[in-house]
Amino acid sequence: MTRPTIAVHKFSSCDGCQLAFLNAGEDLLELAGLVDIRHFLEAGVADEDAGVDIAFVEGSISTAEEVERIRRVRANSGMVVTLGACATAGGLQALRNLDGRNDAWKQAVYAQPEFIGTLEHAEPVAAHIDVDFALWGCPVNGRQVLAAVRQLLFGVTPLDPRDKLCHECKRQHAVCVMVADGRPCMGPVTRTGCGALCPRFGRDCYACFGPAENANTAAMGARLDGLGLPPADIARRFLFINSHAPGFLEAGRKHYRSDFGDD
Amino acid sequence: MNSSSFLPRDALQSLIDVLQDRGYRTIGPRAQDGAIQYLDIDDVAQLPAGTGDHQSPGRYRLHDGTSPRLFAWANGPQALKPWLFHARETLWCSTRGADGRLSFAAAPVDERPLAVIGARACDLAACHLQDRHFVDGMTDPAYAARRRGLFTVAVHCTQPAETCFCASTGDGPRAGEGFDLALSELDDGFVVVAGSAVGQTVADALPTRTASREQLAQADAEIAGAAARQTRHLPSRDLRAALFARLEHARWDDVAGRCLACGNCTSVCPTCFCHAEQDVPSLDGTSSEHVREWDSCFSEGHGYLHGFQIRPEIRHRFRQWMTHKLGSWHEQYGRSGCVGCGRCITWCPVGIDITVEAQAICGDADGGNA
Questions:
Q1: How many angstroms separate the CA atoms of B212 and B215, rounded?
Q2: Cis peptide, bond prior to residue B173, ω within 30 of zero
Q3: Which residues of A touch B88 (CB under 8 A)?
Q4: Contact present, A76 and A232 (Cβ < 8 Å)
Q5: How confident is the model at residue B2 (pLDDT cuts 50, 70, 90)?
Q6: How far is CA A80 from CA A6, A27, A70, A110, B49, in A?
Q7: Is the distance from CB of A57 to CB of A87 less than 8 angstroms?
Q8: Are B144 and B135 in contact, with CB atoms under 8 Å apart?
Q9: For chain A: N or C, fewer Cβ within 10 A?
Q10: What are phi and psi of B7, to 5 degrees?
Q11: pLDDT in tens, B183-196
């Protein structure tokens, strides 16, 4: 029996989400026996145009070359699954979309901006092609990715955990850092998946898994304001990692001011 | 059950020692990560001496003091529930053998019996409500096994938080029943009362002396003071009719605008029992664990029925929570599901207050405390 084929593609990203596969330890060996990995540069397998059953895509689309390449990935793949915040919601690099000043940022940041070939906007993969399933997180984690792989191999759509992080935080018996320490924790609007990693270590969630279902961003923004956060900080809480996720973009924009300071 | 005795403060360690000698895993309050939490204890030095708390809607802070008292605080985020109804638990496993046949095995339950020191009246009342769900009728084997082994040392509450209202629900601050031992903490020690036969045998093994009339009077006065200091209350102990007559009250929309639907209220509620189950397969697909975990009526899965969502909006979810807790619980278990512990008020990140919402929705209803 032929094994299902998979590919892992990289676009504009830090490569960190692909490590969910490479850091899987024994599970990686198990996975290698279950599927035929046809393209995965970080693992040393290169065949960019291989036809596969499942393509995992890391990174946002931010250059003309990437626009063309993501279309080829779509054409060559049975299913396309986004891997992490950049592919799913634009990631950090999409922050430059917010004030529409791509050229101004380029001039300000780079010594020789003429060598930078970025598009006006860095966008989620779904802005360019149909996506079958999204894995949120910055980064995704091995448990989450392998659970999705297992369910795809069973031939079913993976479970899409969209509950608020607070549910999981309480299951872990972490003390609420917002109630007990006044921290601007984003758990009440952020989707679960990380295992409540930050609150378990006394840190406030910074929403790296993107918006939960039914996220009441207006009430959340009001609470952050009540905790004393200035508008720019409230904007950052929503826009930091998943700025182009529906809900977070609108909530963040209510408080956002361009750092150029003239609009 | 038996006459009161007095355990001097410097002899409290004997209680932990006696319980451990009898095979119990001893659990008690500790100040950790900024909150009173029920965790393993071996030594009275681990108890939160002098620690007090400030609680208000959406806010909880501990503070240090010079009091010798170990139980001079109101409840933290959790007490008995996580020890009996585990937040995540494997119920059974399935395995596919080489011949393709499936086999099923129940998850083992072989834990040491628990002794919880410091349980409050509200938590004992809540425990009885959880028993109605998990033991009476369809019995949950794991919960029932842990419950059978449980030894409770109640400590009558003398320090209610601003968010407490157990006096209005009739569940505190005095622990009325359901304990093996009950303590009243005074400055120099503890008045001890046994509430069960096994509790009496533990009490008999402690280096107690006869409690004086003054000590008993002081203990009673402190509990009465704790009841008198509570400022919150529900409009009635039975709001079933009032709530279900007001399902379209404008207040549901108002509270939905503030509610984050984060489920913190249901997670800290000592009576909430809702749970979800899912199968977690191994990567190779040959075995699977059937896992149960805490769920909440504020989650989308809770309102999902065979292809459609019956509670798509936050207003539906908040209304489900409150009408069940204060209303339809009466039909299910013969009383309200609220024991007045106030946790849902303190631990709500935006400070929504169930007593205020109930008053706003039912305040014009007939009937005082039923």
A1: 5
A2: yes
A3: 171
A4: no
A5: low
A6: 10, 22, 10, 34, 57
A7: yes
A8: yes
A9: N
A10: -110, 115
A11: 999 999 999 999 99
- Report the residue of A154, A160, A179 to disrupt the B interface, i.e. the one with the largest count of B CBs within 10 Å: A179
Interface test with A, best of B39, B85, B262, B277 (most A CBs within 10 A): B262
Chain segment B92-132, per-residue pLDDT in tens: 999 999 999 999 999 987 779 999 999 999 999 999 999 99
Distance CA(B300)–CA(B302), nearest Å, equals 5
Crossing angle for the helix pair A142-153 and A26-34, to the nearest 10 degrees: 20
> Which of B331-341 are b and which e, b meaning 16 or more Cβ less than 10 Å from the residue's Cβ?
eebebbbbbbb
**Where does A116-216 have alpha helices with state H?**
142-153, 165-171, 177-181, 197-200
Tell me if A36 sits within 8 A of A3, measured CB to CB: yes
Contact of B206 with B215, CB cutoff 8 Å: no
- Answer whether A134's CB lies under 8 Å from A81's CB: yes
Q: Is-contact B91 B106, C-beta < 8 A? A: yes
Min Cα–Cα distance to chain B from A144, Å: 12
Length of chain B counted residue by residue: 370
Q: Is B302 exposed, middle or buried (0-12, 13-18, 19+ CB in 10 A)?
A: buried
Pick from A155, A32, A144, A27: which is nearest to A88 by CA?
A144
Q: Of B183, B195, B175, B159, give the one whose Cα is nearest residue B53.
A: B159
In the chain, the amino acid numbered A121 is H
pLDDT average, residue stretch A27-34 = 94
Sign of CA dihedral A193, A199, A201, A203: positive
Q: What is the mean pLDDT of chain A?
A: 95
Q: Quote the CA–CA distance of A235 and A251 in Å, as a whole number.
A: 7
Q: What is the DSSP string of B69-106?
A: -SS-S---S-SSHHHHS-SEEEEEEEEE-TTS-EEEEE
pLDDT in tens, B212-261: 999 999 999 999 999 999 999 999 999 999 999 999 999 999 999 999 99
Backbone angles phi, psi at B309, to 5 degrees: -105, 120
Phi, then psi, of A190 in degrees rounded to 5: -105, 140
Nearest beta carbon to residue A171 from set B34, B87, B283: B87
Q: Do B299 and A167 touch (CB under 8 A)?
A: yes
Would you state the structure tokens that stand for residue B171, as one six-digit string?
């569940």
A237 three-state secondary structure: helix
Residue B95 bridge partners (DSSP) = B103, B287
Residue boundaries of the structural domains of chain A? 5-153, 165-255
Q: Judge: domain A5-153, CATH 3.40.50.700.
A: yes
DSSP codes joined into one string, B190-256? EEEEE-SHHHHHHHHTS--EEPPHHHHHHHHHHHHHHHHT-----S-S--HHHHHT-TT-HHHHHHH
Type of residue numbered B283: L
> Token pair 């007990």 is at which residue?
A180
CA B187 from centre of chain: 26
